[in-house]
Amino acid sequence: MSGALAACGLILLLALSTALAADGVSGRRAALVIGNTAYQHLAPLPNPANDADRIREVLERANFEVTLGKDLDKKGLEETILGFLRTLNDGDVALFYYSGHAVQVGGHNFMIPVDATLATSYDLEVQAYNMSSLLEYMRETSSLQIAILDACRDNPFANNSYYVGQAKVAVEGKKGLASVAPQDGTLIVYSTAPDRVALDGNDGLSPFTGTFAEYALKPNVEVRKLLSDIRAEVIKRTDGRQTPWDASSLTSSFFFVTRQNLLIIEDMREVRVAPETKEVALRISPPITSGNAELTVNFTKLPDQGTLWLGDQQLSLDSKIAADRIEEVMFKPASADMTADEVRYTVTTDGGRSASGIVRVVVDNKAVAEAQVKPALNIQQGDEPKPAAPEPAKPILVAMASDIGTGFAAMPEEVVRSTSAAPTGWLRLEKRDPETQVAVDGKIVSEGDLIKAEDITKLRIRPSLKLVAAEDDATPVTETVAMNTSGSTGKVDTSTDSMEVKPLPLPADKAPAKEPLRTVVLMPAVKTAAPAPITINVAVSVNECDTLAAEPLDVQAVADGKLPNDIDVPRALTACKAAAEQHPEVARFKYQYARALYAEGNFKEALTELNAASDAGHVRASYLLGRLYQFGAAVERDPAKAIPLFESGAKRGDPYSQYALGRALVTGLGTKPDIDRGMAMVASAAESGHTYAMNMLGTEYLSGQHVAKDEARALKFITESSDRNDVYGMVLLGILYRDGAGVQKDTKHAAELFEKARAMGHPYAGRLLARLAERENTADAATISTWYRESAERGDAWGAFYAAELLKDNPTLQKDNGEIARLYALSASFNFKDASDQAKKALGGVDALTIGKEVQLALKRAGQDVGEIDGRLGPRTRQAASTVLGTAAPRNSGELLSDLLHKEWIETRPRLDMLGS
Fold first, then answer.
1. DSSP states of 721-732 as a string?
2. Measuring CA to CA, how many Å separate 708 from each of 224, 714, 716?
3. H-type helices in 338-438, by residue range?
4. What contacts 585, CB < 8 A, 6 or more positions away?
5. Per-residue pLDDT, 837
6. Which member of 144, 346, 728, 769 has the lowest number of beta carbons within 10 Å of its beta carbon?
7. Same topology for domains 36-248 and 266-372, yes or no?
8. Which residues lie within the region annotated Disordered (predicted)?
9. Is 357 in contact with 348 (CB distance < 8 Å)?
10. Residue 300 main-chain phi, psi, to 5 deg
11. pLDDT at 917
C-alpha cells in the first residue's frame, strides 16, 4: 500500500472511531448567540439579528462552537437553548450572548421571544425565559461562564405587573436590566449600566456589539482588560450616553484569543566551503512563526572578510529583508586567504518579538564544491539532517467519517507512518471549519497555530454537536469514500499527482445519504513554491441509534427523539447495541440501548444498561431510573431513591427531571414536602417547554390545593400545553370547558378535546369521554364500555373500576364471566388513591371460585402448568404464582390476582411516561 501512496497526492481513507472523553481535551468552548429583531406584537428592533451574526463570526474565530438563533418565537427559543445545552457536556467555557427585547421583573432578567405579547399578568411566565435559569445550567456543565447581554432597550411592558413564581411584581417605571450578582467562575457583561437603556445604533450594529466585535479578537488580552477598553470606546462613540457594565466573579484568567507565541529560527549554522570559493549560498532556513505574523530579517553583524548579497543588492546593517527570502542570501569572500568568518542576524515579528541566529563560514580543504555544503539543522525538515534536494512533498487528502456526539477522534498513525512522503518539520493549522474543533496533545488549537509534523498523530478532531444537513454542504458520491462503521471502503485514484476526485455513479437505490462535510487544512509552515497541504475532510452523520431511540427534550441527545411507543424496537436494538459497544465511553448510547430493551420488554437487561448510563452521568437515564423507583416497575418501589436521581438531572437543565422533582416536592412523594421549591422547579421545566409541567401548574392553580386558587392563571398554562398538542393539556382544557371553570361552559367542545386526546393515547381521556356521555346521554352502553376498557388497558384505575361497574349493570356486555373480577383486580393493582380502594372493596364481594379461576388463567398465560382451571388454589398453584412474581405469592386470592395482572400489564409495555405519578 505504501508504494502506491508514495506515487501521487495522497488520499487516505480512515474512520474516526476512537473518541476521547470530553474532559480529555482542555480549552473546549461553546456559545449560544441569539438575536431577536422581528417582534410581532412589540416594537421591532433594528439591529439584533445583525448583532447576532457578527458575534457568531467573532466567536467562531475565537474557537467557540456556536449555536445561533435569530427571530425566535417561544418554542424556537426553547429548542435553541436545548441545542446549546447539548453542546456543553463538561466543557471549559460556556458563553451566552443575547440581543433583543429583555425585561427585568422581580430582580430577574427575562429574554423576550418575538411572538410574546406580555398583555396580561400571566404572560411573562409562559412567554419569556429567565436568563438566571440558563446561567445555572451553564454552571453545571462548564468551569467558566460568560453572559453578554446587549438587551437593555426600553422595556416593552403592556401590563403594570406580572407573576414571577408565587409573587405578583409591579414593573411600572422599570427600565433596562437588573444587575445580577454572579456566582464563582461567572462573568456577566451588560451593554449599559443597570436600570439604564442601551442605544440601538445607526450603522447596522449596536454601539456595544460593534465595538465588542472589533476588540474581542485582539490576541493575548485578558477579558477584564478587554472589557475596560470596550467600555472606554463605547462611552466615546456614544458621547457618554451609554456605559457598558460588567459583574465578575472569575477565579481565573480568560482570553478570547490566545496566540501561540512561537518564533522558530535556525540559531546556529555552519557552512563549509572549498578554498578560493568565489561565492556561497548561506542557505539559512526560513524562520517560522505562529499566527501568520509578518517576519523581517536584518543582519546585526556583517562578515569581516566578505560581503552579503541578495540578488544584485549588497546588504548592510540597515537592510531589512522579507524572512521568506533569507535562504537566498549569498556570501562573497573578499580574498582567497579567508579561513573563517561569522554573520549574525535577527528575525523580528510584526508584534515586536525577535530571535537571533549565527552563521559561521569555514574554509575546508576537503570541501570540493560549493554545492556540497554540509547541512546544518534544517527546521523545514525536522531535527534530523535531510538530503540537500529531498523529494518534493505530496498533498495528502484524508477522508474521515464521524457520528456527532462521539467526542474527539484521533488521526490514525497511517497518515504519517505508512508513506515515504509523510509530512515533516512544522505544520500550520491553515483552516478550520467553524463547525469543527481541533486539538493536539489534549489542547484546543486555533487557526495559525503551529504543529510539529511528528505530533500529527496526536491531532484530534471533534465535529460540532449540531448537524446541519444543508444541500450545499452534502458530501458528493466519489471514488474516495470514507470508511463507515461497517468498515467498507471505496476506491482511491493513484494515477495522477493532482487531487482531483472523480465522481463514482451509483444506482439511485444504493446511493448513500448526503452528509455535511467539515474540513481542516494543515499547511507546511515554511512557504514553498509548491506547498503540500494536508486536507482532512470529515463526513458528519447522526448515528442510527440516535435517530431511532433518542428521547425528546434530552439535554444530552443529538436528535429530536422518539416517544416510547414510537420506537422501532428491532432496528433500535441492533443499532444501539452496536453503538454502545463501539463507543463504550458515550453514556448516551447506553441509555438509548436501555430504552430499546425496555420497549422490547427485556426489563432485566434494560435496568443494567440504565444503571450504567446513570452512573456515567446521563441525566435522562437517572430520571427514568427514578421514575421506575416511583412506580415499582422493574425494581422494588422506593420513591425516596428517586429524589437524588432527579436532583442531578434538574441541575443540568433537564426539564423531565425538574418536573419529576418538583412534583415529588409538592406532593411529598419520597421526600419532605417543600411546596415553594417544588413549584419553582416545575415552573423551570415549563419554561423549557415541558408540557407536563405546564399541566401540573395548571391543575395546581385550578384546584388551589397547594397554592392560591387562580382559574385565569390555570387557563393560561393549560391552553399553552393544549396548543402544543399535549394530550394532558387537551384533557385539562376539556375539563375546564366541561365544568365552565374560567371559560364559558361548552360540553360539546369538551367532548371534542377528550376524543382528540383519547385518539392520541391519553390513558384516561376515554374514561372522561364515557363519563360525559353518560351524563349527557350522548352514547350507548356498548360504546361507553369500550372507552372504559381502553382507559383500563392504558393504566387508568378509575377506568377499570367504572368499566366493572358498568358491566355489573349490563351483564350481556361482558367478554366472559371473569371480566368484572379482572377489572376490579386491575384497578386495585394500580394503587391509585380512592379508585383502587373502592376496587379492592368491590373485589372482596366477588365469589372466591371466580377469582381463583382468573388467577389460574393468568398463570396459564404466563406459561405455567396449573392443571384443571377449577378456581381452587392449592400449593401447586401458589408455587407457580411465586415463580411468576419472583417473590412469595400473597395468601389473599384477590391480592394475588391483582399482582399477577399488574405484572402482565407491565409486560405489555405501557406508556409510563403518560401516567403522571
1. HHHTT-HHHHHH
2. 46, 11, 15
3. 414-417
4. 19, 21, 407
5. 93
6. 346
7. no
8. 484-510
9. no
10. -95, -15
11. 44
How far apart (Å, rounded) are the C-alpha atoms in residues 444 and 451?
12
Residue 707's contacts (CB-CB under 8 Å, 6 or more residues apart) are: 166, 675, 679, 700, 701
For residue 865 the three cell numbers come to: 402448568
Q: For residue 564, what pLDDT is reported?
A: 80
- pLDDT number for residue 396: 84
- Alpha-carbon gap, residue 917 to 910, rounded angstroms: 14
Q: Residue 333 and residue 160: Cα distance in Å, rounded?
A: 90
pLDDT along the chain (917 residues), means of 10: 33 42 69 95 89 95 92 94 84 91 86 93 92 90 90 70 86 70 85 73 82 92 94 92 88 87 87 87 88 87 93 93 90 88 92 89 72 44 47 78 84 59 80 88 87 86 65 32 30 32 33 65 82 87 93 86 86 96 94 92 90 92 91 87 94 92 96 96 94 94 93 94 93 95 95 96 94 95 96 94 96 94 95 91 94 94 92 91 92 94 86 61
**CATH annotation of 36-248:** 3.40.50.1460
708 φ, ψ to 5°? -60, 135
CA gap 53, 204 in Å, rounded: 11
For helices 691-703 and 727-739, angle between their N-to-C axes, nearest 10 degrees? 20
Strand ranges, E, within 74-133: 91-99, 102-105, 108-111, 129-130
Contact (Cβ atoms closer than 8 angstroms) between residue 885 and residue 899: yes
Helix (H) or strand (E) holding 713: helix 711-723
Supply the DSSP string of 139-191, one letter for each residue. HHHEEEEEEEEE--S----SSSEEEETTEEEE-TT--S----PPPTTEEEEES
Q: How many helices (H) and strands (E) does the chain have?
A: 28, 33
Instruction: Give the cell for residue 795.
Output: 393504566
pLDDT (0 to 100) of residue 490: 29
For residues 24 and 411, the answer to whether their CB atoms sit within 8 Å is no
Contact between residue 516 and residue 470 where contact means Cβ atoms under 8 Å apart: yes
Sheet holding 396-403, edge to edge: 10-13, 396-403, 534-541, 517-524, 426-432, 450-452
In the chain the first and final C-alpha atoms are separated, in Å, by 62
For the chain, domain boundaries = 2-17+392-541, 36-248, 266-372, 763-917
Q: Which fold has domain 266-372?
A: Immunoglobulin-like (2.60.40)
pLDDT of residue 52: 95
- The one-letter amino acid code at 87 reads T
Return the pLDDT at 173. 62
* Rounded Cα–Cα distance for residues 557 and 366 (Å): 71
Q: Following CA atoms 50, 52, 53, 57 in sequence, which dihedral angle do they give, to the nearest 10 degrees?
A: 140
* pLDDT attached to residue 422: 64
> For 872-899, b where at least 16 C-beta lie within 10 A, e where not — what string?
ebeeebbebbeebbeeebbeebbbbbbb
Q: What pLDDT is recorded for position 377?
A: 41
Beta-carbon count within 10 A of 675 CB: 17
Q: What is the pLDDT of residue 482?
A: 30
| pLDDT at res. 409 | 80
Distance of alpha carbon 280 from alpha carbon 340, whole angstroms: 13
Q: Taking Cα atoms as reference points, which of 723, 781, 730, 782 lies closest to residue 758?
A: 730
Asked whether 89 and 129 are in contact (CB, 8 A), the reply is: no
CA–CA gap between residue 391 and residue 8 (Å, rounded): 12
pTM of the model: 0.78
Mean pLDDT for all residues in the chain: 84
